[in-house]
Amino acid sequence: MKKKVIILGSVLLGFSCADDKEPLPENTTPKKEYSEANAEWFPGGEKGTLFIANSKSYRQPMPFIDDDATLYKQFMRGERLFEKSFVAEAGTAYSGLGPTYIRKSCIACHPSYGGRSKRVDEFDTNDSRNGYLLMIYDPNTPNLALASQYFTGMTQTRAVAPFKAPINEAGIHLEWKNYMDEHGNRYDDGTLYSAGTSYEGTLIYPVVTVAQEAILFPDFDMSRHAASIEATIGIYGVALLDAISDEDLRAEHAAQQLRPYCQGVIGADIDLTLRTPHYPGIHPGRFTYLCTRATIDDGPGSNAIWNITNVVTDLPERAGRSELYITPEYARAMSQDADVQLLYPGLTPQEIRDSLLSKKQKPEMSREDFEAFMVWHRGLAVPAARNLDTPKVQQGKTLFTEAGCAACHRPSWKTRSNYEPMPQLSNQTIYPYTDLLRHDLDMKEPGRVRVCRTTPLWGRGLMPAVSGHSDKLHDLRARNYEEAIIWHDGEGKQSKEKFRAMSKEDREALVAFLEAI
Fold first, then answer.
1. How far is CA 80 from CA 86, 92, 373, in A?
2. How many CB atoms are closer than 10 A to CB 10?
3. How far, rounded to the nearest angstrom, does the alpha carbon of residue 474 sit from its chain's CA centroid?
4. What is d(CA 190, CA 480) in angstroms, rounded to the nearest whole number?
């Protein structure tokens, strides 16, 4: 049962199953009635915000879904698809896993329902904390091109027998190295970074190596390529980001070109005429770290349900999703594998390869399930802001703006007037604190994400309550808000240096503001 929220005077009451009851954290301001004057308390807008602040904050439906029996039923059906592990056996519930895959379920990449995964020391996809995705790319190309002839964009490290995994996880090595910045890991007042923690005065970054013998393809030369990791992103509120108009996004990009810093890169135009039924045409990318997806129909969830589990969906009117998420070299290698050939009696290796690469695979997920999954994906509420009226948070908000953080972490947007298929999210003023553009932060060893989309900040202050940690940035090198700011060089250096020059009290106030929004 989902949490139902009602208002009695100024008190927030939650009614739910016994195991769903948790008190609100101390100093959390009860729900306010929406108005333009207090819109910042509603980062997901009037329709997309829910006033709940506990370990289940990222999994709640938007209030209008709770009030609509049909949407609620679809939401719950979609939630089950997010939670359940897929299996390879045909004819059973949640069948269709493989032949290769990244995880067996969505929640395995997105623990805590859209909360980010935890930083780990070993790349093991059986570890429930590890939501990392592996990228194999050519570091000598201008755009750090993926090795897409051999490996899928998000590299698969698991396979259903008798198929073989493209990379054996035992050969993937993740090392966290120490980094000393030009200031000796200290603020201008001499205080060590992250003072008072077990890791004070340290900064870390990951280095990923892949052993040649771990790779399935004997003709692939790993010494000429590189590997890096990316943590999965938050998924609540993505429909509201989807609802921002292309015109407003392009206008933001144009405005940034006039600044001496924070000159963001807009996502490349993507033709989605045959991809999305709700917003066909050509649109700039806005989803993923590299803005490689332009709409939610072709974005985080709709894409991931296919390429993480390799489950083929029944979407006959759309291009894609009807083929296996594998590469030509993988199909060739498996067509020559004696164990795999037993699955295709009477077929030649070329016929096996053609079968694996066919764009007309038998659907494994019904259209009804997919549509329910998308209702769930669109309908995840944004947690309300907290403590905005306290003096410390108000001070932090002023400092955030004065330091220039709001130049890239744009506070608010207005969603377009005709958002489909969820018209309730039209004309909403939202506060995601992102410009949806990519910026060069000039980080040490950033891997393939050298120019990264500005992360939405809304709701991130609840990560310790929801996920049990506060690891941040694209590879989770930052263990708290302080470190996330300190890693901002390049276009973010001016703001980072202003933060470093602040007093301890001011730094704490700015962090308190980030925790509140």
1. 11, 15, 8
2. 10
3. 9
4. 19
Q: What is the pTM of this model?
A: 0.93
Amino acid at 83: E
- What does DSSP say about strands 203-210 and 172-179: parallel, antiparallel, or unpaired? antiparallel
In 3D space, the residue among 378, 438, 382, 406 whose CA is nearest the CA of residue 143 turns out to be 438
DSSP 8-state secondary structure symbol assigned to residue 491? G
Q: Are residues 286 and 294 in contact, defined by beta-carbon separation less than 8 angstroms?
A: yes
Token output for 447: 């891997």
**3 CB-near residues (< 8 Å, 6+ apart):** 14, 15, 16, 20, 52, 56, 60
User: Cα dihedral sign for 301, 302, 307, 312?
Assistant: positive
Nearest to 122 by CA among 178, 179, 177, 172: 172
Enumerate long-range contacts of 501-507, CB under 8 Å, 24 or more apart: 501/187, 501/188, 502/187, 502/399, 503/189, 504/187, 504/189, 504/191, 506/395, 506/399, 507/187, 507/482
What tokens appear for 250 in the block? 């392009």
- Note the pLDDT tens digit of each residue in 240-296: 999 999 999 999 999 999 998 899 999 999 999 988 888 999 999 999 999 999 999
Buried b (16+ CB within 10 A) or exposed e, 90-124: eeeebebbbbbbbbbbbbbbbbbbbbbbbbbeebb
What's the token pair of residue 107?
A: 């929640």
> Which residue in this structure is represented by tokens 């771990």?
214
**Are 162 and 342 in contact, with CB atoms under 8 Å apart?**
yes
Residues 6+ apart with CB under 8 A from 488: 441, 495, 496
What whole-number distance in Å separates Cα of residue 450 and Cα of residue 277? 32
CB-CB contact of 43 with 431 (8 Å): yes
Mention every residue, 6+ apart, whose C-beta is less than 8 A from residue 151.
136, 166, 167, 327
CA distance 217 to 148: 13
CB neighbour list of residue 115: distance below 8 Å, 6 or more residues apart: 58, 234, 463, 466, 467
How far out from the chain centre does Cα 413 lie? Answer: 20
- CB neighbours of residue 425 within 10 Å: 25
pLDDT at 276: 87
